[in-house]
Amino acid sequence: MREDTVVQLRQPGTISEDPLTEILRLGARRLLAQAVEMEVAAFVEAHSDLADEAGHRRIVRHGYLPEREIQTGIGPVAVRCPRVRDRGAVEAGSEIRFSSAILPRYLRRSKSLEELLPWLYLKGISTGDFSEALAALVGSEAPGLSASTIARLKEVWQGELERWQERDLSARRYVYFWADGIYFSPRLDHDKQCMCVIIGADELGRKELLAIADGYRESAQSWREILLDLKRRGLQVAPELATGDGALGFWKALREVYGTTREQRCWVHKTANVLNKLPKSAQPRAKQHLQNVWMAETRADAGKAFDFFLQAYGAKYDKAAACLAKDRDVLLTFYDFPAEHWKHLRTTNPIESTFATVRLRTTKTKGCLSRKTAMTMVFKLCQSASKKWRRLDGSDQLAEIIRGVKFKDGEKLIERAA
């Protein structure tokens, strides 16, 4: 066989270069260069009215900074950022400087790639497999993405978490709270770790992670410390409504710290608790009857559906009926708020959906996370997930809630003139 007909096979574990990816990378480099050139041109033009002592333009182009590579989702992209010179600065420190919003001075990885790293870790990629996984995604020659990268990043993330936990909240106002405790098993601990989480919705309808702390079985003391810490950092005004499950610890602490906040029990948790007290054969039908309660258009209709369930199941399944009946009032609180908000207020879904990935990670690693690492990774997960959280429907009505406007069956009550 002729030597030039032999196809050289790559060694196992190496990543083949894709010609299409290389073309995309070259195209990205050109587009990036054009975008930065337009950015610096706009900056120079914005200062075109400034002149130095000789009457010449004060702000001018001044070559380029050294070329550097930015790690992106399609591999390393080489870039050169233009320089801008201020020829009229009187003294050092007074010059007008150009700072690219597209290519910050110390940027080495694209934002999407930075977010990729914690997600890979949470999805079950171990630190030892990071090099191979990242090479397949961003190219085999990508520097700074070795197995030790995740270890260094975890130290950075822990610092971010500590600063976030001390941030000032005095200028913030939250109308709604969602609270829940998330359980999973950390390394070598016999007891499951409880992560107490609060998400808030501000006066513009934006959801935001407010608090995350390592609690003890959702005890009243754990929740009290979390709520008091929010108050210490400036969150003095109580939310109008809080949604959570039936854990007594949170509600006891809430009444002590924010006594005016109204309570809404999570229908997802309540439905699961009620169905667990029924035989499997009866659960599908019972679930439909429960749905008829929280899907009713008015509180009166919900009350009728509520009574029907108690009558239909109370005689034979008294524990299931009692589980539902004990929280009757706080299961229907949402009827006193705008109808557009009902789907947001009836459940703690913002927390449950976000933490599904955390459970996946701890399952894959068989509980190898330490308590401190688990806290850090949960924080980073929420930080990334929050960028995709939807604003509340009917957010324009939040201002009316703050003003004290009353709602009945989702509709605003119109006060009659005296």
Please tell me about this protein's structure.
The protein has 418 residues and is of the alpha+beta class. The protein folds into three domains: 19-107, no CATH class; 112-164; 174-403, no CATH class. Helices cover 43% and strands 15% of the residues. The chain has a five-stranded mixed beta sheet, sandwiched between helices. Strands 1-4 form a two-stranded antiparallel sheet. A hairpin with a 4-residue loop joins strand 6 and strand 7. The radius of gyration is 28 Å and the shape is elongated. The relative contact order is 0.10.
Q: Outline of this structure?
A:
The chain is of the alpha+beta class and 418 residues long. Helices cover 43% and strands 15% of the residues. It has three domains: 19-107, no CATH class; 112-164; 174-403, no CATH class.
Sheet with the most strands, sense and barrel status: 5 strands, mixed
Output the number of helix runs.
Answer: 15
How many DSSP-defined strands?
11
Q: How would you describe the oligomerization state of the chains in this entry?
A: single chain
User: Taking Cα atoms only, what radius of gyration do you get, to the nearest Å?
Assistant: 28 Å
Beta content comes to: 15-25%
Which structural category fits the helices and strands? Answer: alpha+beta
Question: In which range does the helix fraction lie?
Answer: 40-55%
Strand order of the largest sheet: 7-6-5-8-9
Number of discrete domains = 3
How many angstroms separate the termini? Answer: 103 Å
General shape: elongated
Low-confidence stretches: 1-16
- Output the helix-strand order: HEEEEHHHEEEHEHEHHHHHHHHHEE
Q: pLDDT average, as an integer?
A: 79
